[in-house]
Design goal:
about 75% helix; mainly alpha
């Protein structure tokens, strides 16, 4: 198996873990039940991803693998700075919507719907604004993703949950297109660095707005060390997953890496089946009922197939 495929598979395994921990954090009253605050934490911690520039400073080389070089980072132009802040804005509100949805439903219901909407939106926006080409099977892939989304929405989500998932998917698609535009504007090393800086600057700017500061600061002070450590560890795992996806994209076939994104839904489903019966109902995966199990299995299979058709 090529290293880049292994990177992509491991990344989706980590992403599944992150989604389930996110579910616990925004649902448990002992953690960070305010989605807005947790999204703030996530943006701040996302800035720590610039540590991937450290290996590039070391006199060590790995065959076939390159690391971002801080020497390629330049003082940002207005376009780069603007796109970096916009990417942070879209990412933040995508997270807020997704965390709200996770408060209302299982991760194995929410994440596939958000992913399906995001995949369709990203391709459509890239086609309209970035001149991207669509695959010959685009229409069939969209139909499968839409069908899976509609089935999950009808059987597993409330209307409020559906709208929240759609909102999250749209913001994620905007985020991905803005990031792509940023990388078109400058080099990958430069764009990635300033996009992480943009996350931190955007998060800090929220504290300057009195109404937002009042929502965030009390939770920051009240967060227990144990929960704070869980948040940090979870976001470190998310950062590792992000880097693995980027490396897989660099080393291998982009379309295959994107198609492998559907594995996240499969891993979440497997975790739900194996661990769901042993976790509290409020923030666990609810797969105890055979009918619910069957619904989830069919819906997830359709959406995974849609990903393979769309990107394969």
């Amino acid at each position: 198996m090529p290293a880049w495929i292994l990177f992509a598979v491991i990344a989706q395994f980590f992403n599944a873990i992150v989604a389930l921990v996110d579910k616990y954090i925004v649902t448990s009253k002992k953690a960070v039940p305010e989605p807005f605050v947790y999204a703030f934490y996530t943006c701040v911690l996302s800035g720590a991803a610039i540590v991937i520039y450290i290996p590039g400073l070391l006199p060590v080389s790995i065959d076939g693998v390159t690391f971002p070089d801080v020497g390629n980072v330049r003082f940002p132009t207005l376009e780069v700075l603007g796109l970096s802040i916009l990417s942070a804005y879209t990412f933040f509100y995508a997270l807020v919507s997704m965390f709200k949805a996770l408060q209302q439903a299982d991760a194995s219901d929410v994440v596939p719907v958000v992913g399906a909407v995001s995949a369709i939106g990203s391709l459509a926006l890239a086609y309209l604004f970035l001149g991207a080409t669509l695959s010959a099977h685009f229409a069939f892939g969209v139909i499968l993703l839409a069908l899976g989304t509609l089935l999950v929405s009808h059987f597993r989500l409330s209307w409020k949950g559906v709208l929240t998932c759609i909102s999250s998917g749209i913001f994620f698609s905007l985020h991905y297109v803005v990031i792509k535009g940023l990388f078109n504007e400058t080099s990958f090393d430069d764009g990635f660095f300033w996009s992480r800086v943009g996350f931190v600057l955007f998060a800090i700017s929220l504290l300057l707005i009195p109404s937002h500061g009042k929502r965030i600061l009390p939770h920051v002070r009240a967060t227990r060390k144990r929960i704070g450590a869980l948040v940090v560890v979870n976001k470190v795992i998310a950062g590792v997953a992000s880097v693995l996806v980027l490396k897989a994209t660099e080393l291998g076939d982009v379309s295959v890496v994107q198609a492998l994104g559907g594995l996240q839904f499969l891993f979440i489903f497997i975790f739900g089946v194996t661990l769901g019966p042993h976790t509290p109902f409020a923030y666990g995966e609810n797969t105890r009922d055979l009918k619910v199990f069957a619904h989830k299995a069919v819906f997830v299979a359709i959406i995974i197939l849609g990903f393979w058709v769309l990107f394969g």
